[in-house]
Amino acid sequence: MPVAAPRPRALWDNDGVARADGQLTHEIDPQDKKPQDECGVFGVWAPGEEVSKLVYYGLYALQHRGQESAGIAASNGEQIIVYRDMGLVSQVFDENDLETLPGHMAVGHTRYSTTGSSTWENAQPTLGPTRFGTVALGHNGNLTNFLELQELADTRQEVRQETVKQATQKTNRTRGHRDSSNDTSLITELLASGTGENLTEVALELFPKLEGAFSLVFMDEHTLYAARDRHGVRPLALGRLDRGWVVASETAALDIVGASFVRAVEPGELIAIDEDGLRSYTFAEPELARCVFEYVYLARPDSILAGKTVHSARTEMGRVLAREYPVDADMVIATPESGTPAAVGYAEESGIPFGQGLMKNAYVGRTFIQPSQTIRQLGIRLKLNPLRENIEGKRLVVVDDSIVRGNTQRALVRMLREAGAREIHIRISSPPVKWPCFYGIDFATRAELIANGLTTDEICQSLGADSLGYISLDGMISATQQERSELCTACFSGEYPIRIPDSQAPERSC
Ligand code: SF4
User: Has 39 been annotated as catalytic?
Assistant: First the structure.
């Protein structure tokens, strides 16, 4: 009789190190990853609803913001239970897992991290004791004053230990020490050792001390909270259900669970939601520095950022690019899928028809199967296949959102030439990426960024294209319809709007 193989439950080995998967990720070339947003957060307060399922679908909609681990913490008003694991949302949770997370309130998290820190300990939501109960917390962003905050935490060790002692007497579920090395655990620890009368007071006292980028969802047994740093670097949206409230990294995640978008959580705002209603507090005056890369690549095109859909900003970037770098050609094609809105904009503005040149496998996802050497050599063909009949003999404009190392575009040019393209003109809807991000996005190292050592002509040569044009910084900013002074453009301009972290800063958590 055949025996069913057990379903793989985790992507890490006994040492807590991420186990290699098949690398068949959504990236066209896993060795040439796009800049990675490091987390998505989601929270629900909705009496009478199965909120863990709502959070599941919310995280599903935010999967692009983090594919290494996922977690949900749920509260029934008396107790918080957290379930988190390595892998995609669909790999971490099944129906039975969600049934172990009862309650009317929950927070969830999807996380991306660099390989070295991809461990279960760093998965979120984190859980910690406070003098008022337990706090579960999910974070998107990156703090830039980790060492200062660590010193603050060290000076509060006595309060912390007393809190832990009391919590341990109440329950043996709660861990009594920082269980990972990241800044999210540090925030949890500082919330545990604060001196306010309740968690709201503790948060209002702590958050002005946090520097860098943070969009947080957190909760104790009774109240759901959301908070955003005073620069508003990462997005955070508030939505309404018939019988409750939702907070999510992006508005698209509100749509997917049937919540209507109310407004963004404002920079410098803390929101508390419970049976007494929704309360809003200002913990810092806004000094806006929204991440412009959210418009270029990171956010979903169907999300709304600062009143504008990401899709319309990307399409406009394509129009600007067509004005800045026109070319005689027969067809505009996109690098699927992130280049598509800009390619459509380029086609509209230039009058050159938009066409399908590359087919992407829509079902690409992580796999447990290690590719053989033969399969590995296929490279980007695992993900993309050229439509020869559309390409042969044509002069193509190929639009993409950004170039990191250039490996993807180089392979693409080779593949299109093999399929018979006569000319290949690459157009990029963001300026050259030259600087690292300290506010929650994982880039290649400076040395790996192709634009860091080469001129545009040299990059064009290296890719084997007939021409290459990057949108200007001003052109990209104008397409977002945001004030330049209210955006972070540091990875393009090198102008950092928030103090850069100490060189000793630890690994990014999220
Ligand atoms: S440096 Fe600024 S613009 Fe670039 S990814 Fe980071 S936050 Fe966004």
Answer: yes
Q: What is the dihedral of CA 416, 421, 423, 428, to 10 degrees?
A: -40
401 is in an annotated binding site: yes
Tens digits of residue pLDDT in 418-437? 999 999 999 999 999 999 89
Helix (H, G, I), strand (E, B) or coil at 45: strand
Token digits for 480?
A: 């977002």
* Residue nearest atom 7 of ligand 1, based on CA coordinates: 291
Domain boundaries, the chain: 3-144+179-287, 309-493
**Intervals of the chain under pLDDT 50:** 1-26, 114-116, 171-179, 504-509
Please state the separation of Cα 52 from the chain's center in Å: 21
Two tokens, residue 30:
């896993």
Measure 477 CA to ligand 1 centroid, in angstroms: 13
Any alpha helices (H) in 305-429, and if so which ranges? Answer: 310-324, 340-350, 373-377, 388-391, 407-418
Amino acid occupying residue 190: L
Q: Quick one: 3-144+179-287 is in which CATH superfamily?
A: Aminohydrolase, N-terminal nucleophile (Ntn) domain (3.60.20.10)
Indicate the residue type of 6: P
491 is in an annotated binding site: yes
Quick one: which of 43, 123, 147, 92 has its CA closest to 499? 147
Q: Please check whether residue 69 is in contact with residue 84, taking contact to mean a CB–CB distance below 8 angstroms.
A: yes
Out of 140, 233, 293, give the residue to mutate to test ligand 1, the one with the largest number of ligand atoms within 8 Å of its CB: 293
Phi first, then psi, for residue 491 (nearest 5°) are -70, -20
Distance from Cα 38 to the centre of ligand 1, integer Å: 12
CB-based burial of residue 10 (10 Å sphere; 0-12 exposed, 13-18 middle, 19+ buried)?
middle
Task: Please write the tens of the pLDDT for every residue from 383-395.
Answer: 788 999 999 999 9
Cα(277)–Cα(67) distance, rounded to whole angstroms? 33
Alpha-carbon distance 256 to 290, whole Å?
A: 24
CATH class of 309-493: alpha beta
- H/E segment holding residue 462: helix 456-463
Predicted pLDDT at 484: 96
Where are the strands (E) in 116-275, listed by range? Answer: 126-130, 133-143, 212-219, 224-228, 237-241, 244-248, 260-264, 269-274
Most distant CA atoms of the chain, gap in Å: 75
488 marked among binding-site residues? yes
- Ligand 1 contacts (CB < 6 A) are 233, 291-293, 437, 439, 441, 488-491
309-493 and 3-144+179-287 share a CATH fold = no
Catalytic residue among 11, 24, 28, 39: 39
